[in-house]
Amino acid sequence: MAAGRLVSRLAMVTGGGSGIGRAVCRRLASEGASVVVADVDEASARRTLQSLPSDLRGQAHMAAVADVASKESVENLLTSIQVRYFQPPSVCVNAAGITADDFLLDMEEDDFDRVVRVNLKGSFLVTQAVARALVACGATKGSIITVGSIVGKVGNMGQVNYAASKAGVEGLTRTAAKELSRFGIRCNCVLPGFISTPMTDKVPEKVIVKMKSLVPLGRMGEAAEVADACAFLASDDAGYVTGASLEVTGGLFMG
Ligand code: NAP
């Protein structure tokens, strides 16, 4: 790990209360960033906050309740961050996400809408709010990272809503990358494959065994391994990387 790459950077992570988002919070904090842990679930955001590596715990970092699917909630989040730190986050990781699986022939309209509202519209609202705040304060650099999914590229049985939302965030990210480059703001996606988190705890064991057999590296990924990719994209080591989608899949569905 390249410690210290994010010293004096302010980072905001949505979905920071669980799984990949929590791992990203820990990784960014371990590299020196002050981290805003944002989640719809206040208790889980606080648990992440308590686990962050910093002597200044509770001062350097903060937990915040935010529903990424609500414009008002996202705007309140940005306001509370700027009141506390006197600056917007220069690193933003969109990790909030949900699933509501069913086959196309059976899927309820509400389940389609709900998943798209959180995963796609939520990424739009957060990206827009962070970018607006950075541009308004004259910031000269920023990094916005959105957690997509390899499923957005290849599709997945029973996930027509989720796959559509994750394909959408790649288009959103590439467009944001083009529009925001002139402000020094880079926008990228990470595309996890099959990662061990509370989200995949719901997957039946027989499906897990089958998926593992398809992964060239022969195992599920760890949330920390997705966080490694996010930390790279957040850092100046990725200073010439924008509009990219970085697959973190153990080789699943490559090529
Ligand atoms: P997770 O453990 O369920 O974490 C997702 C977090 O997002 C939870 O804390 C959840 O809170 C929060 N959240 C849900 N709706 C929200 C909203 N409207 N506003 C703010 N926060 C909200 O899932 P994960 O596996 O870490 O997933 C993180 C991201 O990675 C998601 O975007 C997911 O699609 C993506 N991903 C995961 C995998 C995988 O294999 N795990 C693979 C590819 C992509 P609640 O628990 O209260 O709902």
Keywords summarizing the entry:
255 residues; alpha/beta; Rossmann fold; seven-stranded parallel beta sheet; two-stranded parallel sheet; 9 helices; 9 strands; 45% helix; binds NADP nicotinamide-adenine-dinucleotide phosphate
Task: Outline the secondary-structure elements.
Elements: E1 10-14, H1 19-30, E2 34-39, H2 42-50, E3 62-65, H3 71-85, E4 91-94, H4 109-136, E5 142-147, H5 151-154, H6 160-180, E6 185-192, E7 195-196, H7 198-201, H8 205-214, E8 221-222, H9 223-234, E9 245-248
Parallel strand pairs: 1-2, 1-4, 2-3, 4-5, 5-6, 6-9, 7-8
Helix pairs in contact: 1-9, 3-4, 4-6
The structure holds NADP nicotinamide-adenine-dinucleotide phosphate.
Based on CA atoms alone, the radius of gyration comes out at 17 Å
Q: Main β-sheet, in a few words?
A: 7 strands, parallel
List the ligand species.
NADP nicotinamide-adenine-dinucleotide phosphate
Report the total helices.
Answer: 9
CATH architecture: 3-Layer(aba) Sandwich
Might you state the CATH topology name?
A: Rossmann fold
* SSE-based structural type: alpha/beta
Span between termini: 28 Å
Helix content: 40-55%
Spatial strand arrangement across the major sheet: 3-2-1-4-5-6-9
- H/E element order: EHEHEHEHEHHEEHHEHE
How many separate structural domains? Answer: 1
Mean pLDDT: 95
CATH class categorisation: Alpha Beta
Number of strands: 9
Beta content? 15-25%
Principal-axes geometry comes out as globular
Poorly predicted ranges (pLDDT <50, ≥5 residues)?
Answer: none
The CATH H-level superfamily is NAD(P)-binding Rossmann-like Domain
